[in-house]
Amino acid sequence: MAITLASLRQIADLGFDDVIDVRAPAEFAEDHIPGAISLPVLDDAERARVGTIYKQVSPFTARKLGAALVARNAARHLEGPLADKPGGWRPLVYCWRGGQRSGSFASILSQIGWRVETIAGGYKAWRGLVVQAVQDRPVPSPVVVLDGNTGSAKTEVLALLAARGVQVLDLEAMANHRGSLFGAMGPQPSQKTFEARLAYGLAALDPGRPVVVEAESSKVGDRRLPGRLWQAMIAAPRVAIRAPLAARAAYLARAYRDVTADPARLAAVLQQLRPLHPAEVIEDWRGMAAEGDFAGLAGGLMARHYDPRYEKHRARMAVPVVEVEAGGLAPADLAALADRVAEAVWQVSRQGAG
Question: What is the pTM of this model?
């Protein structure tokens, strides 16, 4: 049977034992249904070969070759990852459009006796729901932006807000990037996977309560924010953390230890700033990095680079703002700061509603 998807949460609600993506590995790597496992019935080279024969020889010849390859790969899966599955195992199988690849594999599984189902329209149907959620529909909850200059511990405070029952969307976690030149945390997900993570986050929101997102540009690393969300963030009321430069510098030196522990990486990022600052400023920053004065380096970067850009951006905004004084940003200070921010979120959201 083929199920027709009506919502992103439907697959989880149906309680399948496994969700199997039978597309080629490159297709799976670009994006897939969360939680799916990859059991390709054609690998990348086989898929390209069948496609070429379909266009250059004939559809019949391509289907015959494809059937042989699917059978061969299905046998490997049955003797490998699926060898220990019990008789009551219930999988959901999908491919690109819910057609031949998933249908062929599902037919083999059903002949064994497993209760297998496919997705009508395959991955494209599921991707359509993601697009609707992030591009076509407004953000379901009132948005509040958590603002503050670089080094204000916004990301940590956002996590503490979630622990206090405040709705949040952690865009940096979804994009695997801290949103600045120094913010790389490893490979980023594809744009499609980033949008899928965001769609699932939006689907879980309670429309009756505000949702807090951290202030970002229109991109988090190389991942673009969907237009609907970005416009909602621009128009949203803000809670701005205010903290002294020295406290922010100490916080950044602690939070970015992964960067400061890698001299080559740090030097490469500083090199990217050369077109924006005088040579003597760059050399001064390089000297601080070489001497291990990372708090001094952070303070210089904020005073000369980040803070002026933030202030220029904020000057163009005309939205309600509630400021929260941080004082200190040491680990022991953040719980009390999160309490004050949570109260400010309710305050500014009530102002927006009024």
Answer: 0.90
